[in-house]
Automatic annotation (TrEMBL), chain A:
<keyword id="KW-0813">Transport</keyword>
<dbReference type="InterPro" id="IPR006311">
    <property type="entry name" value="TAT_signal"/>
</dbReference>
<comment type="similarity">
    <text>Belongs to the bacterial solute-binding protein 5 family.</text>
</comment>
<dbReference type="InterPro" id="IPR000914">
    <property type="entry name" value="SBP_5_dom"/>
</dbReference>
<dbReference type="GO" id="GO:1904680">
    <property type="term" value="F:peptide transmembrane transporter activity"/>
</dbReference>
<keyword id="KW-0732">Signal</keyword>
<dbReference type="InterPro" id="IPR039424">
    <property type="entry name" value="SBP_5"/>
</dbReference>
<dbReference type="GO" id="GO:0015833">
    <property type="term" value="P:peptide transport"/>
</dbReference>
<feature type="domain" description="Solute-binding protein family 5">
    <location>
        <begin position="197"/>
        <end position="575"/>
    </location>
</feature>
From TrEMBL, chain B:
<comment type="similarity">
    <text>Belongs to the binding-protein-dependent transport system permease family.</text>
</comment>
<feature type="transmembrane region" description="Helical">
    <location>
        <begin position="126"/>
        <end position="148"/>
    </location>
</feature>
<dbReference type="InterPro" id="IPR035906">
    <property type="entry name" value="MetI-like_sf"/>
</dbReference>
<dbReference type="GO" id="GO:0055085">
    <property type="term" value="P:transmembrane transport"/>
</dbReference>
<keyword id="KW-1003">Cell membrane</keyword>
<feature type="domain" description="ABC transmembrane type-1">
    <location>
        <begin position="128"/>
        <end position="319"/>
    </location>
</feature>
<dbReference type="InterPro" id="IPR000515">
    <property type="entry name" value="MetI-like"/>
</dbReference>
<keyword id="KW-0812">Transmembrane</keyword>
<feature type="transmembrane region" description="Helical">
    <location>
        <begin position="51"/>
        <end position="72"/>
    </location>
</feature>
Amino acid sequence: MSKSTKSRSSSLDRRRLLQGIAAAGAIGVAGCIGNGDDEDDEILDVSAALERNEVDLDEIQEGGRLEFAIPRNSISDYDQSQSTAAEDSVVFEAVYDGLTTVDSEGEYLPWMAAEHEAEEANDVSVTDYEDYMVEMEADDADDGFPFFDLEDDNNLVLMQHPDDLPAEEGDTVRVLTREEAGDAVADGVYGTRVEGRLHEGIEFHNGDELTAEDIVRSYDRYVGSDNEGQMFDTFMYAEALDGDDGYTYALYSQEPDAAAFVEMNPYVFPAEHADVPAGELDPRDDEDLVPIGTGPYQVEEFEEGSQLLLSRNENYWVENVGLENIPWWDGPDEFPESPVIDEINIRFVDESVQRSAALEDGDVDIAYELPSDARNSFYESDDYVVSATEAFGFKFMQFPVEETDTGGAFAEREIRQAVSALIPRQQIVDLIEQGWGDPARVPFPAPSADLATTADDYDDLFDEEWAYPVEPDVEQAEQLIEESSLEAPVEITIQTNADDDERIDKMQLAVDQLNQSGLFEAELETPAALGDWTPELYTDGARHEAAENNAAAVIGLAGTPEPHGFPETIHDPDNWNGCCNFFFPEGALPEDFIDLLRSCRFATDVAEDEDTRRERYDELWPQLTDLSANTIVDYSLNTGTASNDVVGFNVHPQTQAILSYAVYAPADEQIMYLDRD
Amino acid sequence: MSTERGRIQISGFDTDGIEDQDSLDAWSESEADELESRWRKIVSSIVRDRLALGGFAVVAVMSLAALLSQPISVGGFTIQPFSIVPYDPTQTGVGARYAAPSLSHPMGTDRLGRDLFSRVVTGGRYSISIGLIVTALAATFGVIYGSISGYFGGRVDEVLMRILDVVFAFPGLVLALILVALFGGGFWPLVGAFALVGWATYARIIRGEILKVKQNEYVMAAKALGARDRSVIFRHVIPNAIAPVIVQATLSIGTVVIGVAALGFLGLGFDPGTPEWGTILDAESDTLATGAGGTWDWWATVFPGLMIFLFVMSMNIIGDAVNDALDAQVDDIGGGG
């Protein structure tokens, strides 16, 4: 009896609940049906965001705490000799000033260096160092590539005699290490020499004065670091020309190097950190090891994963040196000689939705990498400022070109070209980026075009035969498949990061287009859902496995104004299993192509003459797109969104400089302040 | 008469009496009748309870729509030729980005211009089929495992139950998440992950029931008559202890669907672009950030969320009705799988 009563009462409640839900749903749906529009997607006009936000110098207000959100849940590595994470650099570019700086046009200018100039280039190759090489026994070897056990922690092998390679464990190999490099330099055997002079009176946050010795010793910190390869593939030797306490220095490259002016510049560490092994400069492990630089901000407080507070360097070197002593400065006298914001509170907000909400709620002042629709809303709002600029970031697809018994489709150039021809680049930018990006038409972005082509106008290159199609070219793809040994549909997989929604969306469009063409049966995979997928690409056998599975990899990369990074990073076998060449060890790509690629930067003629270098790149680009070992998908616009409390916010083309540039960059007369009233 | 006074009369050894008794087969038939009547009770309970009937109708419609949404081919042979959804659920650009619900797109479109109605209807295939398969696998294994444990008792029970404790020591969803993270997502890995964590609940329920049922006279009688253990367990014990398992199974289908959607929402489960409800929600979660003065594209999250809600709630209502019909008094629906 009681049970029956209970049941009825319960049924009535549920019924009412369901009826309520049904009614609410019906009303909701009815209210909205018919309001939908099937109009074509409207592309937002982002031109206003590309204009600079100017500051009236008389209105500048000093002080305040800037709340700045970065898209990470913590600092990956406090040690900048070790860190490879762009978001770490976003923060620490404000702590460490460089020998040079880059303006918004991508031009390199001396910064802590009053002078910094490439002087001469010698036509040397590895064999020219033969007389300075020492014989060493290989401690280990992998694939004919020897490894050595060196006694001095700061020493490393810079080059090996090509006649001794390949080598096995126990073989004797002639090598040039850092210890012998000075002898070679003394005899005039080196590639390019860069001579520079520091401004006098630059002090680290700990009060030590910056001298040439600090520059020389900073290179020691790269030995054994994750950035070792990147630094020492070019750099050979540094010396203080006027003694350790002097201000002049000379940097030497191994080969003639057209980019030696910028590519050999290290983060400059103070003497007290010179002997700290790479990766150990981390206050989370030792509270005394707080990063110390010469930059406008210093680390004040930190708490793992929740807070990092930077405070203004009250002894900033620009105030001591004076802007008028910066060689290129021609700005107004009243332009501040340091940032005006007192503190920067770095907020770790991993999710884009949360960053958007935090910005909307006023919890943070500046955020970037927001959901595209939210960014559009901020852009159209009067209460926020969205700043954008053409940037160096790009997404690319890399094909495993190895021939394998199963799979191996991408070993055929025509298949790679067909995939590249079908990527809907324009749709990707219009639909996913909502106009906040550029489809890739050529293998380098507009801001890097100065040294990358003889063409007067970047847009002229779009009509070249070798340019990427922005709309899918099914006809060309059909022809390419016919020319290949495979029959349509070719089964392929496209892999990308699981933690990047926009990248996933872009590749879904690409996969859909490939499938719609009927030429491919494509699938999208996001391996390592909980972890970091990219390191898996560097593991043994990953290249072979990808080739067997016809799996192309898609990742993004932040480039620099120096154009060589775009082709080199993703093609050069010297970069294999370093970021970001996953699939091309020595011999995987045609030797003449690699020679041409290297000759665009590492040759005497291009190092001494920029026009020759531009012509060399003109030769490279058609071969590069024809080879299609990689294909570029799109180039990003760097964007940042600030509340109206922030005045004068502008973004820099390099993501790493987005904070340091915004707070203070005399090269563009960039200054930002807070107006909380 | 007087000669029998004071004697103890022992029955059971007189063969005449045994012959007069019902045969074991007949006994089983009566149990089969009882099972039949159990299903009749369930059906009758659902028919009488309009709420449960509504729930059943929702589940039936969603399941049928999912089944007929797109053709199904096995080994190149089409076994289901119908396609009731207007668009290919994975095709991008069939409408504008985030077009609001309209006659051409009754549930609007998503960020890639895909038709949400087609995606949501087809999405039922993944969630519902995984729910059913997982429940079938988990219940089958759990019932066998729990029956052996409960029936044999002693050390067997002790060892088997401690293994069960190990499984229960992990939160079900977290364990499934770990398994999927280790072995990858996809339909069968998800089935495996949820079945691996879900069987334990059934094992524990059936063991408890069997500890009661095995004390009954008909079980002892079957044993005494020399029936093998397997026969006793499957023909006499399980059929009389199964009611709570049926209720639990009904309720847990919804739990599995929620679990699959949860993993999908966490970016595990299926590859992006798969029209599975949780995966759709994950991909569209950015719409919740509208930015200053922005409008909320509500349909992108409401409809897939509503499907999960409707299906799970309907299954729970059906489960309640089954519970009432069988008087099983199962109220634990949080055990996973």
